[in-house]
Amino acid sequence: MARTEIKIGGFGGQGVILSGYIIGRAASIYDNKYATMIQAFGPEARGSACSAQVIVDEEPIAYPYITRPTMMVLMSQEAYTRFSPELAPGGLLITEEELVSVRTTGQDVRHLSIPATRIAEELGKKMVVNIVMMGYFGAVARVTSKEALRKAVEVSVPKGTQELNLKAFDRGWEYVPA
Amino acid sequence: MSEELYDLETSLPVNPVERFLRMDRLPHIWCPGCGIGTTVNCFAQALESSGLDLRTTAIVSGIGCTGRVAGYMNLDSFHTTHGRAIPFATGLKLANPGLKVVVYSGDGDLSAIGGNHFIHAARRNVDMTVVLINNATYGMTGGQVAPTTPMSAVASTTPYGNFESAFNLPALADSCGAVYVARWTAFHVRHTTKAIKEALLKKGFSFVEILAPCPTLYSRRNKLGDGLAQMLYYQENSEVRHGAETKDVALGFQGKIIVGKFVDRERPTYHEAMDEYYTRKLGEQYVHAVVGGA
Amino acid sequence: MNADPKGVLTGAHFIDGDHACCEGAIAAGCRFVAGYPITPSTEVVERIAERFPYVGGVFIQMEDEIASSIAIQGAVWAGKKAMTVTSGPGFSLMMEHIGLAAMTETPCVFVNVQRAGPSTGLPTQPAQGDMMQVRWGSHGDYQIIAVVPNSPQECFDFTIKAFNLSEQYRVPAFVMMDECVGHMTERVVIPPAEQIDIVPRRWFKGTPDAYEPYRADADLVPSMVKAGDGFNIHVTGLTHDEHGYPNMSVAAQDKLVHRLREKITRNVESIVEYREDQIEGADVVVVTYGITSRTALPAIARARRDGLKVGHLRLVVVWPFPEQRIRELASRVRAFVVPELNLGQIVLEVERCAAGKVPVRLVGHTGGTVHQPDDIYQAIITSGKGR
User: Fold this and answer.
1) Which of C31, C228, C237 sits opposite B293 (nearest CB)?
2) Over pLDDT 70: what percentage of chain B?
3) CATH topology of domain C273-384
4) Nearby residues of B68 by Cβ (< 8 Å), 6 or more positions away
């Protein structure tokens, strides 16, 4: 796969940065690809819409910022409003079904959504919503192998929560839209 | 190192503090009547009577007339930048807790440009002895007003007299947590020697303020006579009041001088607190620093 | 000698440049860090504070950057390898102590994670605006060494390099990162300790009576002792003689300041490091450093696809500057292009060395973000079209 530019968006506290970190770690440590992650710093990282950007490539990455993301994972309405216009034509847009209402703007994108919050609540912990999203993203986008992404989840989440998070990841991976 | 009273070759008497000084650097730069040399004599005698291992005793100075003291002491000596003797000494001490670290500098250096470091080292209780020679002015640069210049005193930058309030340095040190605070004058050589010795042997941030005449700039400009006249002023106007509340020991222009040992208390040093805390928190995983390693 | 394995986190990590810098320092043997919080460098000292209790290091958050930049020098004279970390405003406060370290020949490392200035500027955005300040910021004549990483991996590698060069030449050494590199997360491979070369301090091996603290060896660098060794050393920022004593004479000043300069200039060939790509036969040479060495790559590749002969010279060590190499190239290329995240700093060095022989085109940028590759591409194309 050539250079893939991914943007994760949501609000502070949803685990946006961790999600970007997991993709990058999966690609660069466990899949032997190259990955560069840059998180948006500044006031926007605290409370309102925040984002992480990850580039995954088979070749070393020269330019470290994303210019036209081909994939987006958005977990809040504000993030959707702010970031979705940047998505490249034909790009992949994954949203949290209940947190983001997607307008039909005629944008040429492949849009998929998942009720990740509901799934996370079923698992007993709303906190793992981002990991459900990661599982679904992994299955749909295939930027990294499943093993790499799953392993990256396992080693990146807090100790003692691995089992729950892996369950969340699997539920996301296996999710089939109704 | 000779401890003979007479030189065996010349039969001339040996100055008992000679071994504490870099004799090859003398004569010193201080003016006739200046009080700094007197305090150095007290310091040398305090080193002697303290029984400290001179090999592991280091002295750090800033810039100014008193800042030159480090260069005359036959110890590991560091002449740093203006106001920064205390943070240098902090690094020296924390990197090798086995060293006895003395900061020896002036009132302008330690309480104006270095004031921030002074209060924080006292707050942290970094284990060091700070000897501050207070001549109420900037001597090296020609007698400008200092944070210690008494109200109404004339300085080159207050030609009509000073209208700023002066620091009460013992109160400052006390309020920041210094474990030992004393004030004497260059007239009180025995008390000064004893105070420096006590400070040297005290674990934690110990502070000794010593008032000293600057006849060339401060006294002359304020028509206070020569060095001897200022010594007489110290003699006649000092009142020994051990344990005085430090808030009561502020200095005024040629007014009463409260001297004595004001504070002597126990607090864990920065290093002790760090070691104790990490040992408690991290247990056997905590790795104590070792000396050297570069 | 090799790194102490106790401090080395051997393995592949996905970490940012600030954290990689911290690991580089620990691997290099740094066991004393003094710092003061400032974006975007704070993550370095935060990780130091977390890691040091496990490796026998002492970290202290000082009251300001002035204090930090001299506390490390106290620690060095007590026998430690030491570092401080900051960004623009803090770096400005440290200037006097860069001079002190240069004058007293105190080996120590300063990390500057550059952000856009002047003044408070853009705390969370990158720039390369301190490249001249690091060279000339303290008063008087002196030399320093500065390395510029372009990735988290290099933040690890070059921090070790900075410590090694600092110890070898007894000069303050600088790791000139920027916000982009500091906050960028990538794979960082930390090798086993036995594969990491560490330069130990130049300890004096003789007895006190044979020691003069500032008597230089053949390479113009003196050997060192530490406080408490029984040498009764005197260290001063005043002009001093070989014994370390103040000497206010013109002759002493001349001798000392020349040596401080020449210990670097005479060893410049062993210190400078740059990476070259397709320089042979190039018409245009793009001179880059730090993050611009990456943002220029798409531009260089595109210009080459257009048929232009474009060489790339990437500075790893920016100070001392590789004057000799730029002079050589100036006699055979048609132009230099220098992109940097400032309005013209290192370009002045390239111009100086090119000495009017060929045009030198700056691609300036005030910072806040990195270059658009297209801007660099246009400059290459314009330069390639002729003089």
Assistant:
1) C31
2) 99
3) Rossmann fold (3.40.50)
4) B28, B29, B30, B61, B79
